[in-house]
Every structure is written in C-alpha cells, then in structure tokens.
Specification:
Rossmann fold, 7-stranded mixed beta sheet, alpha/beta, binds S-adenosylmethionine
Length: about 240
Amino acid sequence: MSTDLADARSGELPPDQVRAMFDRIAPRYDLLNRAMTMGLDRSWRRQAAALADLAAGDRALDVCTGTGDLALELAARTTAKGQVVGLDVSPEMLERAREKASARGDDVRFEVGDATDLPYADDAFDAVTVAFGVRNLASLDRGLAEMARVVRPGGRMVVLEISTPRRLQHFYRLWFDRLVPALGATLGRDGAAYSYLPASVRRFPDPATLAERMHDSGLGDVHWRPLAGGIVTLHWGRVR
Ligand SMILES: C[S@@+](CC[C@H](N)C(=O)[O-])C[C@H]1O[C@@H](n2cnc3c(N)ncnc32)[C@H](O)[C@@H]1O
C-alpha cells in the first residue's frame, strides 16, 4: 500500500496507511533516526527509561515500540523477575526489535497490537512509556487513556515526543521541513513518509497542552522537560 502524498503532507494518515508506512521504512528506520538526530536519540531514550522509575521485578510496557530501542533501555533497568513488553502495529518494525533483543540476550516480549485498544488488563503494568509514537495515533486522548488504564495507580507514564523549539525557528524549519524530507527521500527512499513527519509534528499539541491532556487522561503530578533546545520534549506523570 502506498502513502497518499496529500494526506502525508497534512500530517494525518489513516491507521492502515501509518502501519504500511512503518512496515515499508522498517529496514532503514534506525539508520535514519541516527542520521536525523545526529545520534542524540539514544540519550533521549535513556532519559525516558530512567523516568519510568522502575524497581526490581517491575513490569513495564513500551507502546509504539517500533524497532524496540526504548523497550531495551527499560529491560536494562529491570531484573530477571521483571518483564518488559513492547507493542506496535507494524510487524516489520517488531521483527527488527526481536532481532536486536535476541542479539543482546534480552528477554523482551514484542507483540503486535494497537495503542488505542491495548490487549492488556487494567493495572497490568508498573510503568508505560512511548517514544515518538503518540503523534501517530488516530486519537491521542484514546491512546493516553489506554496507557493510563493498564498501569497501576502510582505507576509512571513517560512520553517522549518531537516538539517545536521556541528559539532558532529559522534553522529548525530549514532542518525539519527541508532536510528531513530530503534525507528521507534519499537515505530512506520514501519521500512521503518523511513529508508526513514534519507535518505530523506541526499539528501535534504544544508541551503545556499535552501535559493537560495527560492530566485529563488520569495522570497526576505531570511534568515536562525540553531536550536539545526543545526539538524533543519529555513528559511524565503518575497514574492517579
Ligand atoms: C516513529 S516510530 C517510533 C518507534 C520507537 N518508539 C522509537 O523510539 O524509535 C512510531 C511507531 O509507532 C507505531 N504505531 C503507529 N500507530 C500505532 C498504533 N495505533 N498502535 C501501536 N503502534 C503504532 C509505528 O508502527 C511505529 O513503529
């Protein structure tokens, strides 16, 4: 299935086109991530995993796990008695995640599923994380509510997402609106996917609004921290 270019440029794609797009770019996803963030994405995910505040034996869920990098960071913070699950709609992305986990000898379960309709019981986890995922959901509020539902009261939710910095707007626009789609079209061989990326960021709520929506989804004590001058933002809170 190809991506409709007009939809991609509006930053809104139907769920089946989102899945098909990630299936298509899966083999080049990690390479493009490293190139577009100049390798900073690893440290951002490490900070997200630390904020999940896991204790020995805890169970953690990483939603929209993709090629599994954040799930693997979480696995490094639990003991053998704990369990990390990574969930994604794209079987191709999950295939890369499983390869990485088995190469590292990490026991992470990767499962196909939809973040807006999680196949888990209420309070099944001690923490839930999501990196660069909620922006892609057909309903942000439904996704946040589902993530809150499956975490026990007092457990953490951590959201890492691309944001628009307040300073250096001119440089940012050049990099994100021009260079990212150009890199996507050449390195990623998928111009539509990397036109969708800046468009989906433009229509995503600002950090204060996202914090409010997290609060409205059942979280308390919600905080956020801009990273790398505000090109990404970390939000976290505890399920009430
Ligand atoms: C930009 S990637 C982020 C992957 C990974 N979390 C990371 O940090 O690199 C977004 C991921 O969200 C997944 N995704 C999109 N919509 C989803 C949904 N409704 N439920 C679960 N996963 C979804 C995509 O398949 C893709 O793997």
